[in-house]
């Protein structure tokens, strides 16, 4: 948006590093370039059927472009993408001139705001000063204070902090945490092998930046992880088999292009730190398409994943988390170019391995102790409000993973130690030592627990179920680790189940076991019958037509699967949908993408929890009447089951509603909120039948999200839709408030339960203060009275 800046930060890669192309560019982007940019993006989105486009307005300092120019950019992009795909529009600023007028504009176009700040005043002023040496710190804090006001808080995207190891890491963390950002990005300062980073004199092992970040990690963890920290969340995600959340780590291909003020296309602007002209492509928005940019050799080089790394990186034990580090940080002049380890290689190796070790120690505490400490009061209070941050939801997920590990050990103990079961156990033991993230990824699968419970029920098939499941889990974990293993896996009904991967349908009714041979990029399955068959599944080549792979969707920053192959998914009280056809899966993909974009835009307070805790959506068969159907199984943390509704907005409601049940179920695994001996039944305003106390508690908690949903629909709709949404908001707000008081008066709550219900009451009271029309109030009361009358007449 603007190629100059009102600060003179001495660590700025745009102005202070090798590439100086900014000097020859116009200060402000023109109307012509803005229009062409919007048209190119829309063209690309249409061509590739994109669901969402992410655009960041940056600089320089983008606020220097002024409100008129920023409004023009937002309008051009919004108009061009209307009816094409969702637009995630953001701006990154130093915030020294951020004021209400800018924020009103950003609110109008839903532009999320990220702010650069390096910590407390002493830390920030090491680099982020005006040209005359004046501090920028106070003005940045004023801008952040505005973002934290209730009317603007939904626009606050987070804080970007560039590390300087001379700063006290705890002081930096505490200063940033005090500002309550939703996310913090700690960035390694840009450096190359030619221009290495500044290091203390005593940094003999080259890990000063790792030590700095690990001090922050420990403080963040002890603090209850109150906000997302992208580098830590990314490491934890990849260690558990998930995706990276930043281009600085992981093996995901680059999907970024930069458009300068003169309309020229560049690669990632971090390359400016390598050499003059490093990010150039020789293309511009007037002449060239984004497809042409994607074919540029420099971009293609960053699409190759493992194959694009140096030999040292490819053999590194943490390569899937590190990914070689940021591409620009690999540069060394000469023939190797960017095919080198990161200049921060030692730091990244130590950071990732020590986070892995801390994370594993959390999950493998002695069996006579809980694997995690009980939920702290601040965790319980946060969840009681109806929400749940990334950190708190991740804590619930780690408790569930520890529970799954305990169940697996118990299944092994109770299953009779058969030869096949013991072989699977030995494989898992080795993998848990050498590739623990692969085991965790499989054990975190939502339907491991239903399998384990069935295996422990003692029915005639329990032992066979136990052995089959352990072998399936071992094979799936080995496959995820890419380890050369050979395992005999029992099958049932001609289906080889590999949790988190999919299922293989085998020919022949008499096949009862297969030999699974795993290699680095897939597996073969060989039946042992006289007329045996071999099935080959390769991630890089052909897959057997009998293979039914999991449908994995990377919805922006939320990786989620459609689970339509696991036989244990049929635990939701409604018939599970059989294997989806490809067009059905694509319809789900489109609806989930739009529903997630709607949640992020209109219910952003629910997005962190969903992102951290919801791994699978299980399709259900539609109802004969066309009514929406959804469910959350008490023993399937991380999954919700839904019959695909008519609209993405309805899907958004079902997602946030059912995930409330998922969270509360995990809380109830950790502590008693009520006396389990209470056998009374209670009126629930949303059910035709009387409910036990847990049922009322679950329904009340879920309806906190329902109220927020209808409040958002009321805000974003017009005409009759807005009136209908207001009635729904009013009804469920008032009746949820009534249900909270029923819970409070039950006399069966534990002290923790009383605290939890008090938190729900506080949330509902805040909603009761919202004004509604007399018409909506009358209609809501009429519907409530009719429901209660029908309930009494039963």
Spell out the blueprint of helices and strands:
Blueprint: H1 31-48, E1 52-57, H2 66-81, E2 86-93, H3 100-108, E3 112-116, H4 121-124, H5 137-147, E4 156-162, H6 169-177, E5 183-187, H7 208-222, E6 228-229, H8 230-239, E7 258-259, E8 264-266, E9 280-284, H9 290-294, H10 297-300, H11 311-314, H12 319-322, H13 345-363, H14 377-384, H15 390-414, H16 419-434, H17 436-443, H18 448-455, H19 462-481, E10 485-490, E11 495-498, E12 502-505, E13 513-519, E14 522-527, E15 534-538, E16 547-549, E17 551-555, E18 558-562, H20 582-602, H21 607-613, E19 616-619, E20 630-631, E21 639-642, H22 648-670, E22 681-682, E23 691-692, H23 693-716, H24 719-744, H25 751-768, H26 774-792
Parallel strand pairs: 1-2, 2-3, 3-4, 4-5, 5-6, 18-19, 19-21
Antiparallel strand pairs: 7-8, 8-9, 10-13, 11-12, 12-16, 13-14, 14-15, 17-18, 20-21, 22-23
Strand order within the widest sheet?
1-2-3-4-5-6
Rg over CA atoms, rounded to whole Å, is 27 Å
What structural category characterises the helix and strand content?
alpha/beta
* N- to C-terminal distance: 65 Å
Largest sheet: 6 strands, parallel
Percentage of residues in DSSP E strands: 5-15%
Question: What gross morphology would you assign?
Answer: globular
């Amino acid at each position: 948006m603007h190629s100059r800046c009102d600060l003179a930060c001495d660590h700025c890669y745009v102005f202070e590093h090798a590439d100086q192309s900014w000097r020859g560019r116009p200060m402000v982007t023109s109307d012509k370039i803005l229009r062409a940019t919007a048209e190119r993006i829309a063209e690309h989105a249409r061509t590739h059927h994109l669901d969402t486009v992410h655009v960041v307005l940056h600089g320089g300092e983008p606020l220097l472009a002024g409100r008129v120019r920023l409004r023009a950019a937002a309008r051009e992009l919004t108009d061009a993408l209307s009816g094409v795909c969702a637009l995630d529009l953001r701006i990154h600023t130093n915030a020294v001139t951020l004021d209400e007028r800018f924020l009103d504009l950003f609110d109008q176009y839903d532009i999320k705001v990220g702010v650069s700040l390096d910590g407390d005043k002493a830390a920030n002023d090491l680099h982020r000063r005006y040209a005359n040496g004046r501090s920028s710190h106070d003005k940045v804090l004023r801008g952040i204070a505005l973002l934290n006001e209730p009317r603007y808080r939904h626009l606050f995207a987070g804080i970007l902090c560039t590390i300087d190891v001379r700063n006290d890491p705890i002081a930096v963390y505490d200063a940033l945490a005090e500002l309550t950002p939703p996310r913090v990005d700690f960035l390694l300062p840009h450096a190359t092998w030619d221009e290495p980073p500044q290091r203390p004199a005593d940094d003999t092992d080259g890990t000063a930046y790792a030590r700095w970040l690990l001090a922050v990690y420990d403080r963040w963890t002890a603090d209850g992880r109150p906000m997302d920290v992208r580098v830590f969340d990314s490491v934890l995600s990849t260690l558990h088999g998930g995706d990276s959340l930043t281009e600085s780590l992981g093996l995901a291909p680059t999907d970024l292009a930069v458009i300068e003020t003169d309309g020229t296309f560049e690669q990632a602007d971090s390359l400016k730190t390598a050499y003059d002209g490093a990010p150039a492509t020789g293309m511009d928005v007037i002449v060239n398409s984004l497809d042409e940019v994607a074919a540029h050799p420099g971009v293609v080089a960053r699409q190759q994943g493992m194959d694009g790394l140096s030999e040292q990186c490819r053999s590194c034990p943490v390569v899937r988390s590190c990914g070689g580090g940021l591409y620009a940080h690999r540069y060394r002049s000469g023939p190797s170019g960017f095919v080198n380890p990161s200049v921060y290689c030692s730091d990244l190796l130590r950071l990732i391995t020590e986070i892995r070790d801390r994370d594993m120690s959390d999950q493998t505490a002695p069996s006579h102790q809980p694997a995690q400490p009980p939920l702290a009061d601040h965790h319980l209070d946060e969840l009681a409000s109806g929400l749940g941050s990334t950190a708190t939801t991740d804590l619930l997920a780690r408790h569930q993973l520890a529970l799954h590990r305990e169940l697996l050990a118990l299944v092994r103990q109770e299953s009779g130690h058969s030869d096949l079961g013991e072989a699977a156990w030995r494989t898992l033991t080795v993998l848990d030592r050498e590739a623990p993230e692969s085991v965790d990824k499989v054990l975190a699968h939502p339907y491991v627990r239903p399998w384990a419970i069935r295996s422990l029920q003692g029915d005639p098939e329990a032992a066979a179920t136990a052995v089959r499941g352990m072998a399936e889990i071992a094979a799936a974990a080995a496959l995820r680790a890419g380890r050369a293993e050979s395992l005999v896996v029992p099958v049932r009904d001609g289906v080889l189940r590999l949790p988190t991967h999919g299922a293989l349908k085998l020919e022949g009714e008499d096949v009862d076991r297969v030999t699974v041979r795993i290699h680095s990029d897939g597996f073969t399955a060989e039946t042992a019958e006289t007329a045996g068959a071999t099935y080959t599944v390769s991630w890089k080549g052909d897959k057997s037509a009998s293979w039914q792979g999991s449908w994995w969707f990377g919805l922006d920053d939320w990786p989620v699967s459609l689970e339509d192959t696991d036989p244990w998914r049929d635990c939701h009280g409604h018939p599970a949908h059989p294997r989806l056809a490809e067009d059905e899966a694509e319809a789900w993909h489109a609806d989930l993408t739009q529903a997630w974009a709607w949640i992020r835009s209109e219910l952003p307070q629910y997005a962190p929890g969903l992102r951290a805790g919801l791994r699978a959506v299980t399709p259900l068969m539609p109802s004969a009447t066309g009514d929406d159907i959804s469910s959350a199984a008490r023993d399937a943390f991380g999954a919700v089951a839904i019959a695909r509704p008519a609209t993405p907005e309805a899907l958004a409601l079902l997602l946030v509603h059912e995930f409330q049940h998922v969270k509360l179920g995990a809380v109830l695994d950790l502590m008693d909120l009520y006396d389990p001996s209470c056998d009374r039944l209670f009126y629930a305003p949303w059910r035709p039948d009387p409910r036990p106390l847990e049922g009322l508690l679950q329904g009340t908690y879920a309806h906190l999200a329902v109220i927020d949903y209808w409040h958002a629909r009321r805000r974003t709709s017009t005409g009759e839709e807005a009136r209908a949404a207001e009635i729904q908001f009013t009804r469920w707000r008032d009746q949820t408030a009534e249900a909270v008081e029923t819970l409070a008066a039950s006399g069966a709550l534990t002290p923790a339960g009383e605290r939890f219900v008090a938190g729900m009451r506080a949330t509902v009271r805040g909603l009761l203060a919202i004004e509604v029309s007399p018409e909506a109030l009358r209609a809501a009361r009429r519907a409530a009275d009719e429901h209660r009358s029908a309930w009494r007449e039963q």
